[in-house]
From TrEMBL:
Residues 469-497 are annotated as: Disordered. This is Scavenger receptor class B member 1. GO terms for molecular function: lipid binding; low-density lipoprotein particle binding; scavenger receptor activity. Residues 480-497 have a biased composition (Polar residues). It comes from the Eukaryota. Belongs to the CD36 family. It comes from Culter alburnus. Keywords: Cell membrane, Disulfide bond, Glycoprotein, Membrane, Receptor, Transmembrane, Transmembrane helix. It is found in: Cell membrane; Membrane, Caveola. One of its GO terms (biological process) is plasma lipoprotein particle clearance. The lineage of its organism: Eukaryota, Metazoa, Chordata, Craniata, Vertebrata. One of its GO terms (cellular component) is caveola. The keyword Transmembrane applies.
């Protein structure tokens, strides 16, 4: 049975109207559904397999690349000449991280300790752990600065102690020993008679206390009651604030533990986090948007004020005593040793620092730190944290090992901790938290577009039918010419008869 054009017009109008209505509803309901899905996936909840696994075991490639500043002219330095260094490395270590002692609390927080292990990756390194380099001897030059204001006889005694244990101002040792520890009779003596003076009770090395260790007990919010608080630190080792610094603001424990952040970020958002290794909270700022492996990201970088001194940035006065901008004095949380943290090669620091050492060449691409975040979820897609360890060394009267060293903040090593989401985790993340929300967002426009197109088709059909009716002078019907001829034949026959 034929369907009239009027009926088709009505059907198209109804279908188009329903499609537009459904699409319009999705415009308002879709974002709510998407946000609800994101919230369920990013809160710390063992029922959320994707995000909980990423949070607990960090199943993504993570590496630490270490660069040594090999001293070319140690003898000349003792005569007061400017140090000259050559960068060696990187020596790359695969980093394994996992959380243990996980305990959920009634106030929507969870406590844990994060452990870490390092494994040398020769194929990714430029050199081997057996490479021999020369760096300042922290035990000698660091202790000399620490004892600078002690009575002269004590300084003489310290110098005699160094000679007794055959400790000189510089160390020339394999990278592996400098990293993870070397045998030292002086270290054994100090640990036996002055326990607690050194950070390590075993061998002495720059990273000896890092391997097979944890970063302390963090208690963070799960976000189950308020997603805006997810991953934010409630306490560290039971503390709400630290006591390393000279102001309440500098001692605050702000932000997250530095692995994930709350979702729904904007260009006005920042990335605050607490770093146990730096003994302080730090905050990165938005730089630009971008795309990482097909996923939209926001790039956050360190502001110029991060390591500025109190003169250039008054809120940092609490981190003093300060030297030039670009240096963070961490002596208060490193057994009072004269140690400073900076960006590699003194990037973004006072240019004066570059004039004190030959062989440095800072640039943002190689030495600036950044974190690429998927803004909708707060999950880092690509991370590169780069920091440099420096030692203040100078001539100290009474300690002959210091010679005539000109006072200088001496770069020792710089390291980059980097990680990125890849493999099955990336595919699952992209599907659940990027592709599906994108499909739902596009669906609303597809339904509205199809609905409007259907309504437009109905209008065109109606107008064409109306125009045809006016041309006929009355409602037109489609007549079969052959049937008309057959109908006229009997009439003609009747007339003829």
């Amino acid at each position: 049975m034929a369907v009239s054009k009027s009926a088709l017009v009505i059907v198209f109008l109804v279908l188009g109207g329903l499609a537009v209505l459904f699409g319009t509803v999705l415009v308002f309901v879709g974002p709510v559904i998407i946000d609800d899905q994101i919230v369920k996936n990013v809160e710390i909840n063992p029922k959320n397999e994707l995000s909980y696994t990423m949070w607990k075991d960090i199943p993504v490639p993570f590496f630490m690349s270490v660069y040594f500043f090999h001293i070319v002219n140690p003898d000349e330095i003792l005569k007061g000449e400017k140090p000259m260094v050559i960068q060696r490395g990187p020596y790359v270590y695969r980093e394994k991280r996992w959380k243990d002692n996980i305990t959920f609390h009634d106030n929507n927080t969870v406590s844990y300790k994060e452990f870490r292990q390092y494994f040398f990756e020769e194929s990714m390194s430029v050199g081997d752990e057996s490479d021999v380099v020369t760096i300042p001897n922290m035990l000698v030059l660091g202790a000399s600065v620490m004892m600078e204001n002690m009575p002269f006889p004590i300084r003489i005694l310290l110098s005699t102690t160094f000679k007794t244990f055959n400790e000189g101002p510089f160390l020339t040792k394999p990278v592996g020993e400098l990293m993870w520890g070397y045998d030292s009779k002086l270290v054994d003596f100090l640990n036996k008679y002055l326990p607690g003076m050194l950070p390590s009770s075993g061998k002495f090395g720059l990273f000896a206390e890092f391997n097979n260790s944890n970063t302390g007990q963090f208690t963070v919010f799960t976000g189950q009651d308020d997603i805006r608080k997810v991953h934010k630190v409630d306490s560290w080792n039971g503390l709400k604030r630290v006591d390393y610094w000279r102001s309440e603001q500098c001692n605050m424990i702000n932000g997250t533990a530095g692995q994930m952040w709350p979702p729904f970020m904007t260009t006005e958002s920042t990335l605050p986090f607490y770093s146990p290794d730096a003994c302080r909270s730090m905050e990165l700022v938005y730089q630009r948007p971008g795309v990482s492996q097909g996923i939209p990201i926001f790039r956050f970088v360190a502001p110029k004020t991060l390591f500025a001194n109190g003169t250039d940035y008054p809120p940092n006065e609490g981190f003093c005593p300060c030297r030039q901008s670009g240096l963070l004095n961490v002596s208060t949380c490193r057994h009072n040793s004269p140690v400073f943290i900076s960006h590699p090669h003194f990037f973004a620091a006072d240019p004066v620092l570059l004039d004190t050492v030959n062989g440095l060449s800072p640039n943002e691409d190689e030495h600036g730190l950044f974190i690429d975040i998927h803004p909708e979820t707060g999950v880092p897609m690509n991370v590169s944290i780069r920091l440099q360890l420096n030692l203040l060394m100078k001539r100290v009267s009474g300690i002959s090992e210091t010679g005539k060293i000109t006072e200088v903040v001496m770069p020792m090593i710089w390291f980059e901790e980097s990680g990125y989401i890849d493999g099955p985790v990336l595919n699952t993340f992209r599907t659940n938290l990027v592709v599906l929300p994108m499909v739902m967002e596009y669906m609303q426009y597809i339904f509205i577009g199809l609905g409007l197109a259907t309504i437009l088709g109905a209008v065109i059909l109606y107008l064409s039918d109306k125009a045809k009716s006016k041309k006929c002078g009355q409602p037109c019907t489609d007549v079969d010419p052959s049937s008309s001829a057959s109908e006229k034949t009997p009439l003609l026959q009747a007339s003829t008869s």
